[in-house]
Design goal:
- It contains seven helices and five strands, in the order βαβααβααβαβα.
- The protein is of the alpha/beta class.
- It has a single domain (4-180), classed as Rossmann fold (3-Layer(aba) Sandwich), CATH 3.40.50.
- α6 links the parallel β4 (113-117) and β5 (154-157).
- α3 (54-71) packs antiparallel against α4 (85-96).
- The chain is globular and about 45 Å long.
- Pfam families: AAA_28.
- It comes from Rhizobium johnstonii (strain DSM 114642 / LMG 32736 / 3841).
- Residues 5-166 form the NadR/Ttd14 AAA domain.
- This is NadR/Ttd14 AAA domain-containing protein.
């Protein structure tokens, strides 16, 4: 069984906070490639920052996500990803028109169930690593919400509830699936 679970959705929708909760419960988590790239680029020349060169940023995110995905089977139990390959490939394809998404998504599959954080303006904030506005975040979310089902994933929308309850929701969904097999 594929135990690499994607948590995607709207930027600023609570993904990173949710992954911190899952990590505190003992689960393996993989931080969003984008945040790691921004941190690395801020220490270097900054050529692949999303507000400098979005295509270069997306290509770096794809490379990082492929590496992250390959490392996940070494973990026992569930591994939760804050975004991943599909998000990065969707961004690059949207920017450049390169038909990269389907090829990469077939070669590097995640667990069948993908959990999406919906737009949640009440918790949305910008920060040094998230400079885009809420409207841009919603547009990205809309693209991802359409892409995941087209790639054959079952999308589960995370309810707008507390972080602990969101973690329970995900773990309950995965637990029910495991019991049914």
């Amino acid at each position: 069984m594929n135990r690499s679970v994607l948590i995607s959705g709207c930027s600023g929708g609570g993904k990173s906070t949710l992954l911190a909760e899952l990590a505190a419960r003992g689960h393996a988590v993989v931080e969003e490639p984008g945040r790691r790239i921004v941190s690395q680029e801020a220490e270097g020349d900054g050529a692949a920052l999303p507000w400098v060169n979005m295509a270069a940023f997306a290509r770096r995110a794809i490379e990082m996500a492929i590496t992250d995905h390959a490392a996940a089977p070494e973990q026992s139990g569930w591994t939760f990803f804050d975004r991943g390959l599909i998000d990065a490939a969707a961004a690059l394809q949207h920017l450049t028109g390169e038909p990269i998404l389907e090829k990469l998504s077939v070669a590097h599959r995640y667990h069948q169930r993908v959990f999406l954080t919906p737009p949640w303006p009440e918790i949305y904030t910008t920060d040094p690593e998230r400079r885009h506005g809420f409207d841009e975040a919603v547009a990205e979310y809309d693209r991802l919400a359409a892409i995941y089902p087209m790639l054959g994933y079952d999308v589960f929308m995370l309810p707008k509830i507390s972080v602990a309850d969101r973690a329970d929701f995900i773990l309950d969904c995965l637990s029910r699936e495991t019991r049914q097999q």
